[in-house]
Input
Amino acid sequence: MQTLKNDILEIQINEHGAELSSVVGIKSGREYLWQGDSKYWGRRSPVLFPVVGKYKNLKSVYGGKEYSLSQHGFARDCDFTLISKTDNSVSFELTENENTLKKYPFKFRLVCSFELNSNKICVKWSVTNTNETEMYFSIGAHPAFNCEKGKTVLSMNKENLEYSVLNDDGLYLPEKYPVKSRFVLTDDIFDRDALIIENSGVTSVSLSNGGKTFVTVNFTARLFGIWSPVKKNAPFVCIEPWYGRADSADFDCDLTKREWGNRLAANEEFKKEYEIVIYE
Output
C-alpha cells in the first residue's frame, strides 16, 4: 500500500490492482471512499482493463480465435509494479504475461498514476501498444463513494439527459430513458443495474448532502456510468468515467468492432485522466 498525504487529504493506493483504496479528510477524519464490504461489493475503485463491462458470452473473437475474459477484465486482479513515487504522486505499471495472453491477445504496457494536489486527486492512465500490429482495448474507472441513500443528491453539469441500461446478462440495450440532471439517490434507481450515459456533454458529476457538495468527479470521457448494487440498500454510489462499455445484446463478439472500443497502432500511446475533488 502506498500513501500520499498533504494538509487536506491522505490517500492510499494498493499495488494490487493499482486501486485507490482510501481517501480520508485530514480535518474531519471522514473516509470518502467505499471500503469494500463484500456484503455489498468487495471492491473500492478498480481500474477496468482491457474491457469495460462484459463481452457477450464473456468471450471475444480476434484473428479467428476465441478468448474468454470476465467482466471488467483482469487488471483489477493483478499485482502492479511500483515504478515511481514523489511527495505528491505515485505510478504503477502492468504488462502482459503468460496468463493474460490466454485471455487477451495483445501485449501492452499499462501505467496508472495518482497525483494529490490540494483537495484534488488526479488519476492518469497510459496504455502503450507494444505489439507490431494494431491493438484493441477499453479502459475505465469505477470509484465508489460513501453516501447515505435517500439524503444524498447526485447532480450533473448538463440538462436534458438520457440513459441506457443493461439486460439480465449485463449486456447493453439501446433504449433511452430520460433522467434529471439532479436527483436524490435511492435504490430503485438501479433496478436495472447501471445508468449508462453517452455523448451527453457531461463533464462533472457531484454528490451533496444537506446542500453541501462533498465529492465531485471531473472527466472528459464521452461515456460514463452511475451504479450501486441493486436492491441492497448499499451505502455508496459509483461514478465511472469509461472509454468503452459492455457489448450490445446483438453483438457478434468481433473484438475489432466493439462499440466505444479503442484502437492503437503499433508503439502508439493512449493517455487519459480523471479527477476526484473532495470538499471537507
The chain has one domain: 2-251.
